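Suppose a colleague, Dr. K., hands you the sequence of a protein chain of 335 amino acids and asks what its three-dimensional shape might be. Before reaching for any lab equipment, you can write down a predicted structure in token form. Begin with the sequence itself:
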Amino acid sequence: MPSHLLDPGFDLTLRPMRYPRFYEMYRDAIRNTWTVEEVDFSLDVNDLKHKFGQAERHLVERLVAFFATGDSIVSNNLVLNLYTHINAPEARMYLSRQLYEEALHVQFYLTLLDTYLPDPSARAKAFAAVENIPSIRAKADFCFRWMDSVQDLKRIETREQRRQFLLNLVCFAACIEGLFFFAAFAYVYYLRSRGLLHGLASGTNWVFRDESCHMAFAFEVIDTVRREEPSLFDDALRGEIVQMLTEAVECEMAFAQDVLSGGVVGLSLKDMRQYLEYCADQRLGQLGMARHFGATNPFGFMDLQDVQEVTNFFERRVSAYQVGVQGDVAFDAAF
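The predicted structure, expressed as tokens, is then:
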């Protein structure tokens, strides 16, 4: 039997609601509202001018260049592929909210680049990173390959098409949001552990929470399809997912070699690989699969003090969020 959630067409009936969990996720996201204007970059500018060596400056420039295009790619996949085929109005409500959040992230990174790179030529180069920085181009190509795999699907009607769709969703949730972006977050929190770029870190806290919720939604979609059509999740599909995550780790390691090419004290390629493999194992666990790499988290700066700071941050009310946020953040799934 085909998965009800991936049936072709557009179900418009919210009552009776088939998937109330998606509606709850939508309501939780609404309570998670923030704005870019709340982020204060004033101290960051001083840090960049007076506290950064060449190696750290290269790290930041590569990081913001990746940010400049990453969420736009996610947004395009969301609109062109996910919204088209997830056939439940309550799920599409969440995807509409996610699209807003991705636009907010794009605005955040636009503001970040305008602040960090006042020279117009440097800024133009960063925005064109997909064309002129090979390590970022490779990550974009990885994304586009999975986007293109379902781009021409007008309707999902066969078992193979449902598998294609699931692999696209796994790629964007586990590899792009759950690996590429979480690697970027690690660089940000490393800098914060050295007392640097607190504006970037505070905005990243908000982005981090949004991305964690996006992953939770995607994994809930995958779990729902698994319950409705368990035969889809055979050894072949699981093997493709492991291969995909392994490739994503190598792709991100090529970026790490670029980012850390100047030699950044406190960050090594060995530890970065271990952290990526740890994240990949976390994603496999969220997909109900066995760990593949057996890696532990090597980064002390991603430890409990960071969790506590972000937790306190999200318990603030009007000054930090337009609406108070309730509930816990699943940091164990991230770090």
